[in-house]
Amino acid sequence: MKLVIAVVEDKDSHRLVDALSDQNFKTTKLSTTGGFLKEGNTTLMIGCEDENVDDALEIIKKNSSQREQMVAPISPMGGSADSYIPQPINIEVGGATVFVVPVESFFQF
Amino acid sequence: MKLVIAVVEDKDSHRLVDALSDQNFKTTKLSTTGGFLKEGNTTLMIGCEDENVDDALEIIKKNSSQREQMVAPISPMGGSADSYIPQPINIEVGGATVFVVPVESFFQF
Amino acid sequence: MKLVIAVVEDKDSHRLVDALSDQNFKTTKLSTTGGFLKEGNTTLMIGCEDENVDDALEIIKKNSSQREQMVAPISPMGGSADSYIPQPINIEVGGATVFVVPVESFFQF
Ligand code: NI
Ligand code: NI
Ligand code: NI
């Protein structure tokens, strides 16, 4: 058995937990970091059999990888509104840090 | 040495930490989940020698197992108070998810 | 590879994360405990190669060990301000609990 510890962005966590649950992975949502990250993080612990680790990793990768997202920029303060044409910009969102740790035993009481 | 990672309900955590402490287990209370669980969870990390793991598990089981609890139901809104006889109902409370992980070394600085 | 799990005081965590980062350790800041500790705790997870574990431990020890700190006591309520001479006192601050756990695989998506 393995313990998969995945740290993902808050905004990806609900979708990821749902996707894991759809494939019968039991997920324990550990915690959210405090304010020091602009985007809060969520830590998921997923206990899974050795033969299912690759499937779990695939689901994590699919639902929380770092990716680019187009956003509309805020229009500049005090600029001339007439001449300003907002261009969508790309920002990086998401990303997952994943540790796979051996588990000697697992219990649910 | 082993690291016992136990996720329990908030309401069980104080009693469990006390019971572990009474048996000289050092417990690190990690974190409480945010709002998405109605009952918040607490994660405990207990570093213990191999020969003490079973004792720690027994204490966790005794103090945080899933169990039924009788609660008085809320009386129905707008119902006839005269004819309403509240029946206590059973709800499930508690429960622990426990991972036992090998530890290569442990330090207190 | 190893996963170094360090539980330190909030007040030490920023300096410690900076010191680890200066030596190219990637740190995941997990969570802060709720109110039950007067001084909140922060849990750091540091994934590092086997040969770098000792360096990581040294940085943790240097930046978050338990130590004494001189503080000015609060002047006693209702005491005679004229005759009261505050003496600095020593309190214990800091401290780190560290588990080194084997990691089978590590991913960043
Ligand atoms: Ni959902
Ligand atoms: Ni108590
Ligand atoms: Ni800094």
Automatic annotation (TrEMBL), chains A, B, C:
At the top level, the lineage of the source is Bacteria
A Pfam family that this protein carries is CdAMP_rec
Which Gene3D superfamilies does its entry note? 3.30.70.120
InterPro entries for the chain: CdAMP_rec (IPR010375), N-reg_PII-like_a/b (IPR011322), N-reg_PII/ATP_PRibTrfase_C (IPR015867)
The cross-references to SUPFAM superfamilies, in alphabetical order and at most eight, read:
GlnB-like (SSF54913)
The regions listed as transmembrane in this protein's record are: none
Q: Sorted alphabetically, which PANTHER family does this protein's record hold?
A: CYCLIC DI-AMP RECEPTOR A (PTHR38456)
Protein name per the record: Uncharacterized protein YaaQ
Q: What is the lineage of its organism?
A: Bacteria, Bacillati, Bacillota, Bacilli, Bacillales
